[in-house]
């Protein structure tokens, strides 16, 4: 296994990735109905954010309570594009000003604002989904990390930024759709996104993108950058004294996490059919952190399981016992933080070898695998 | 602003200024507790808002009890309700510190998450216990109405009353921190934990008492809160982000800084509220605070603490 696939983390890493791929590409589509599958697709979109947090919080030590901002940027970008496509002059002929989104017309805006113009083009929208969050994260990151703001301060300031953004979105309803958000999204370049086939297609797009993002994350962690990241988390001053520009590295990982979140936000919006401030506020932003914490803050794959586990548990519990759900969620927070700092992935790493030791075929399997490694190397 | 005469502008400023003082009082009472907890042990208590709500519900329970049992006392119940609210939040804080917080002192970012979980549990507990609807207490007659020094200025009495309460509590905290034995121990522990332990201070006890006291002050904030607004299960979470900003903006561990920053943020919001509306006023205030924090991360009044 030496060579260019090393970054997957050896045999265990490869197996983990293949199991996840098999689960989301084969097991889910084969066993679930369309409704369930599209739910799973939404949870997978949260997985992007959680994976980003694994990089920036688990490995970089930067806890951001503001990932909702970037999730929102991605979501609003694609929502703006879809909204403009839905607001053709013919479809909006009854408005005072046809051809602009309905909520603008309700708020007596007669002209498309300048910052909506680029979202007439799908290419520019897709570029914006990547570039805007990166730019925004870079500005925040550089401003804070250059001044050596970190830890709790950083968390609180990112949380304040979430508050600012959500209030702004609600207050400027003529430009943003206000508290309702941007709704009634129908087609993407003429392709109806609300049909069953579209849901399935979007699910697979999300799943493949997520696997791609995880591969990228693993590659990043395996590179020299990953080493510096961990070193910075554990002994920032020593890395700085060794001549590295710590602020730039931190800003970079924060940008990567931001772009991951934005991709997740965009995929979420496509599947949900709308985007609103409640989906990106303080509470969702903290929940993203919990997805990462439950999955395991040091495991990109675990983060995806965390997002799915909480997502499905919420569906199961919130329907049957809405009262108990918040108790359970709160307890999960506390238990994970107190007893399972490395989450599900940590549990797996701790107990999987012990379980394997009980399996009879263990020695045989170990022997074959040793042989095969020797042959390949 | 051009449409107002100077006299009107002054009246607006005065009234909005006094309206800001109510916000200032609640923010400061909340922030005081948070600041001493954060200053002492670098713990971020996300459930602080819920401790305020405990105080508010305690006041509510107390007032319903008085209304039912001793209607004659209704004019003075608030004075008794304040210590009761303090005690309720203090006791819960003490228990929480013992069960949860003390295990996390060396992991400040994790306390943030664990206390958020605690906040969720407490919110749901309030909802199950008191219902999702907001409750409000009956204000004593002497707290109702307003004081009108001129024709245009109109200052509500309840705002003035909690202002007085805030000043008293702040003075009390200042006295405790800088004059009492407990304050001496707290300041020792904050400056250098190992050394404080070495000279015989039981730092664990200091931590627990500080945490419980911080929560107790949040309880007082809750009692004050009932006089200006009704209380619901999630009332506390509305203030938590602002309160954090107050603490960070003021410079953690500095009492004067906390007062100054609560004042600035509350007045900024209140005055901008009149001219550009509540939400935009809040956005601008928070943006300015965040911008200042980016330039000066140690806050307005930085205390020199050995890390």
Describe this structure in words.
The complex is a heterodimer of chains A (377) and B (307). Chain A is mostly helical. Chain A has one domain (6-376). Helices cover 74% and strands 1% of the residues of chain A. Chain A contains 16 helices and two strands. Chain A has helices at residues 10-31, 34-59, 67-86, 102-106, 122-146, 151-171, 173-176, 196-222, 224-234, 236-241, 246-272, 282-295, 300-320, 322-339, 343-358, 362-376; strands spanning 187-188, 191-192. In chain A, α8 (196-222) packs antiparallel against α11 and α9 (224-234) crosses α11 (246-272). Chain A is globular, with a radius of gyration of 22 Å. The model of chain A is unreliable at 367-377 (pLDDT under 50). The radius of gyration of chain B is 20 Å and the shape is globular. With 307 residues, chain B is an all-alpha fold. In chain B, strands 1-2 form a two-stranded antiparallel sheet. In chain B, 74% of the residues lie in helices and 1% in strands. The model of chain B has no long low-confidence stretch (mean pLDDT 84). In chain B, β1 (146-147) and β2 (155-156) form a beta hairpin. Chain B has a domain at 25-130 and 153-233. Chain B is built from eleven helices and two strands, in the order ααααββααααααα. Chain B has helices at 6-41, 48-69, 77-99, 108-130, 157-179, 181-191, 193-198, 203-228, 235-250, 255-276, 278-295; strands at residues 146-147, 155-156. The chains are: A mainly alpha (377), B mainly alpha (307). Chains A and B meet through α6, α12 and α14 of A and α4, α9 and α11 of B.
């Amino acid at each position: 296994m030496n060579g260019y696939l090393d970054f997957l983390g050896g045999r265990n890493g490869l197996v983990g990735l293949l199991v996840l791929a098999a689960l989301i590409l084969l097991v889910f589509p084969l066993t679930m109905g369309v409704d369930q599958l599209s739910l799973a697709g939404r949870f997978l979109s949260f997985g992007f954010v959680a994976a980003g947090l694994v990089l920036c919080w688990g490995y970089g030590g930067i806890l951001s309570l503001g990932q909702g901002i970037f999730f929102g940027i991605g979501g609003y970008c694609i929502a703006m594009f879809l909204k403009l496509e839905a607001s053709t002059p013919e479809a909006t002929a009854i408005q005072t000003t046809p051809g602009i989104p309905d909520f603008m017309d309700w708020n007596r805006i007669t002209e498309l604002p300048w910052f909506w113009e680029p979202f007439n083009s799908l290419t520019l929208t897709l570029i914006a989904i990547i570039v805007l969050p990166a730019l925004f994260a870079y500005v925040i990151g550089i401003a804070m990390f250059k001044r050596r703001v970190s830890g709790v301060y950083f968390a609180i300031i990112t949380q304040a930024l979430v508050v600012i953004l959500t209030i702004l979105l609600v207050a400027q309803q003529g430009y943003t759709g206000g508290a309702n958000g941007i709704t009634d999204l129908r087609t993407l370049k003429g392709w109806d996104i609300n049909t069953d086939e579209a849901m399935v297609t979007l699910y697979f797009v999300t799943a493949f993108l997520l696997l791609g993002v995880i591969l990228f994350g693993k590659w990043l962690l395996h590179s020299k950058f990953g080493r510096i990241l961990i070193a910075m988390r554990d002994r920032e001053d020593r890395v700085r004294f060794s001549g590295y520009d710590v602020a730039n590295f931190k800003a970079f990982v924060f940008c990567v996490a931001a772009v991951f979140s934005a991709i997740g936000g965009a995929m979420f919006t496509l599947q949900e059919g709308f985007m609103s401030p409640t989906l990106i506020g303080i509470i969702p932003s903290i929940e993203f952190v919990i997805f990462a914490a439950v999955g395991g803050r040091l495991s990109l794959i675990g983060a995806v399981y965390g997002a799915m586990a909480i997502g499905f548990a919420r569906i199961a519990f919130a329907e049957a016992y809405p009262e108990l759900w918040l108790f359970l969620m709160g307890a999960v927070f506390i238990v994970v933080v107190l007893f399972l700092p490395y989450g599900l992935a940590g549990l797996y790493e701790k107990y999987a070898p012990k379980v394997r030791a009980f399996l009879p075929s263990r020695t045989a399997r170990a022997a074959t695998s040793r042989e095969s490694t020797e042959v390949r190397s | 602003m051009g449409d107002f005469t100077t006299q009107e502008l002054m009246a607006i400023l005065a009234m909005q200024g006094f309206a800001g003082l109510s916000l200032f009082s609640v923010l400061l009472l909340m922030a005081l507790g948070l600041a001493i907890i954060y200053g002492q042990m670098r713990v971020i208590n996300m459930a602080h808002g819920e401790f305020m709500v405990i105080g508010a519900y305690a006041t509510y329970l107390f007032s319903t009890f008085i209304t039912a049992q001793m209607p004659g006392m209704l004019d003075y119940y608030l004075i008794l309700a304040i210590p009761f609210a303090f005690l309720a939040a203090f006791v819960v804080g003490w228990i929480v510190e013992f069960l949860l917080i003390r295990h996390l002192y060396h992991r400040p970012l994790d306390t943030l998450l664990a206390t958020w979980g605690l906040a969720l549990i407490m919110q749901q507990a309030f909802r199950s216990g008191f219902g999702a609807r907001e409750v409000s207490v009956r204000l004593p007659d002497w707290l109702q109405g307003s004081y009108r020094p001129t024709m245009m200025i109109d200052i509500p009495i309840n705002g003035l009353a909690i202002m007085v309460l805030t000043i008293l509590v702040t003075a009390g905290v200042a006295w405790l921190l800088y004059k009492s034995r407990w304050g001496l121990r707290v300041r020792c522990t904050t400056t250098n934990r190992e050394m404080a332990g070495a000279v015989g201070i039981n730092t664990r006890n200091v931590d627990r008492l500080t945490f419980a006291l911080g929560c107790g002050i949040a309880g007082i904030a809750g009692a004050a809160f009932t006089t200006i607004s009704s209380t619901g299960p999630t009332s506390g979470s509305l203030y938590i982000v602002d309160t954090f900003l107050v603490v960070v903006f003021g410079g953690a561990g500095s009492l004067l800084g906390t007062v100054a920053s609560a004042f600035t943020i509350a007045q900024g919001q209140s005055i901008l509220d009149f001219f550009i509306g509540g939400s935009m006023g809040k956005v601008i205030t928070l943006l300015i605070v965040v911008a200042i924090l980016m330039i000066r991360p140690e806050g307005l009044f930085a205390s020199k603490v050995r890390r």
